[in-house]
Amino acid sequence: MEINITLDKYKLLRYKFFKWRYETQLINKIILAFSFALITAFLAQIKFYLPGNALVPITGQTFAILLAGILLGKWGGVSQCIYVGFGVMGLPWFASVTGSTIGYLIGFILAAFFLGFVTDKYIRSRNFSRMLPLMLFTTFILIYIPGLVYLYYYLSTLGLYLNIVELISLGLIPFILGDLIKIIAAATIAKIITPKTSFGCEIDKTKSCFI
Fold first, then answer.
1. Within a 10 A sphere around the Cβ of 60, how many other Cβ atoms?
2. How confident is the model over 139-186, as pLDDT tens digits?
3. I need a labelling partner for 91 at 20 to 30 A (CA). Which of 9, 50, 83, 191 fits?
4. Helices (H), strands (E): how many in the chain?
């Protein structure tokens, strides 16, 4: 009985947070976005390079991007705009944006906006079985395609022209295992922390919404 009461209280708390986040004033949304930009910057410092690949590091950024979309909706995308924007202005949050990783940074913004939009608009997306493929798409399409395209361009400016196999071997394959672990962890967290009832203007809820 006590376990059920505790679980009910937790469900109510997570619903209240998401409801508040959805309806709160603009200034609070900006504060939330900026806070998650700081979280992303912190996780970006946790990085290491695989042997033989000194161009693109493995970092905790992807995990932060996925959680940004889940927790903040489209404002998760705004948080990544802040993160990238302040980096462009000179804050040492990541490697120089003129370097090999700029395409991945663009992908971070696209990924957070997409995941945030889907999470806020579809209640059914908030369980593990649906969130997992969403995060796989978000990571390996929305992040890696811009990342690989720019990586190819960057290397070509140095006189290095890779074929598709070489490019994928350099900019994707070494990171698959780490990203899969982060995706599974993020999808599990998303299932736990997201309410399974409507808190805003979801498309798949029974009641119409005109907000």
1. 17
2. 999 999 999 999 999 999 999 899 999 999 988 988 888 899 899 999
3. 50
4. 9, 2
Number of domains present in the structure of the chain: 1
pTM of the model: 0.86
With respect to residue 203, please indicate whether it lies within any of the assigned structural domains. Answer: no
Residue 101's nearest CA partner among 34, 185, 175 is 175
What pLDDT, in 10s, does the model give residues 1-32? 556 678 889 999 999 999 999 999 999 999 99
Region of 122 (left: φ > 0; alpha: ψ -120 to 50; beta: rest) is beta
Rounded Cα distance, 32 and 47, in Å: 24
Which run of H or E residues covers position 166?
helix 164-171
Contacts of 74 (CB under 8 A, 6+ apart): 113, 116, 117, 120
Question: What is the rounded end-to-end Cα distance, in angstroms, of the chain?
Answer: 38
Supply the CATH number for residue 66's domain.
1.10.1760.20
Residue at 66 is within a domain: yes
